[in-house]
Amino acid sequence: MDVTHHLHHGTNPVPAIAWEDRHLLPLEDMDASPAELWQLLEEHTRRYLMGESSSLPVETATGLLESIVFTLRLGGVGHHSLAARFQAGQNEIEALMEKGRLLLHRVRRSALDLPNQGYQDTLRGLPAFFSRYDFCYFAREIPCDIDYPLLCPVSDSLSGILWFNDYLRRLCAENLFLRKFRRDRIIPLLQAWCDDPAGLLINLFQPVYQAALGLALLGRDIPLLSLTGAHQEELYHRFAGTDPLPLCRQGGGPSLP
Amino acid sequence: MVRKGAMTMDSFLILREAMHHGTLTELRECSDLLSRYGLRLSEAQMTTLAQQRVEALRDTLRMEFGPGILKKLLYAFCDSPYVSSHNLEDVMVELQDSFYYFKNESMDRLDDDTLIDYMKHHFDHVCHGSLEYLSGTTLEDLCRSARSGEAFPEENHLF
Description:
The complex is a heterodimer.
Chain A: H1 3-9, E1 25-26, H2 34-49, E2 55-57, H3 58-75, H4 82-110, H5 117-125, H6 128-132, H7 160-178, H8 183-193, H9 205-218, H10 229-239, H11 244-251
Helix pairs in contact in A: 2-3, 3-4, 4-7, 9-10
Chain B: E1 6-7, H1 9-17, H2 20-29, H3 31-36, H4 43-59, E2 62-64, H5 70-77, H6 88-105, H7 112-125, H8 131-148
């Protein structure tokens, strides 16, 4: 049976052989045949090329296809055609972008004036996402420079606007926590935490959270953020030999607020 | 290990390769035009050109929907004094390869028509039918200019 038969009948004519795992596009939950997807990709590519070119690099075509699959997933199920599902996905992306703008506003309002280059550069770079994000053709991309590491990174399974919004949500939570403390208490803590807190790509939340947690466990004055060597020794003796897992289960674990 | 129902770009590329029938149809439609210039492509030559299109796309890691660029190349080059029925197939294979290669080299900053116009003008008036000179010198200069956003390079005549 030749390949065109499969194309017309919507079955996959060849075993899927991945170049790399990232090229895999699992469609088992998509309710779309390869032929339908091929047609959508063709129409999409024609629009992207605007009649100026008949061909494009496979890398670009892969980006377009991944964007289509991403958008279709967001479109949900129950549509009468793949095109309708795609349109629903695009509408969902636009709604997510609105949420993202609101989240960005919250991040900027909660941002701290802390001397860390990665943090400040990332804050400055975040708004560019909305002007660069090409959700029609490359919805899976994250077109802005985000260097600042979060304590709990965004899952690698997310991409595009989903990844960006989750990053903003987590960054906002970290900012709001840090705002509970005075700047002149945070900076000495960071200086004790590493050699170059202004230049290194470090998470600012982690040392503050750890100090606050340690002081809370000791029943000391948390806002001072002054976890001395003696305090650490006390914590060590308190928990030495203790299995940490039951503690985490009791207290819910040291997760993000 | 590939998951059940998984689709890769490779699968799409293989589907693409089954679509050279469209290329053949387009080439057959060029017969009348070619005959006006005393040119002819046999069915075997058309099949070779269609197969070479798939090879060229694969070699240059490019993807193309529709019948391809051969029809445009034939329309552009059929009146060249350096093309005859004797060398038409070889010239078209070479031009097609060069076209996709230089689309990549220009980082897709040249649209199809601009690249073909440039190829045709230089093939006739600068390279005097030398495909080696066209791809080895002239198109390299053009793509370098396209990448850097400069004006088109000056003509360096072969003779």
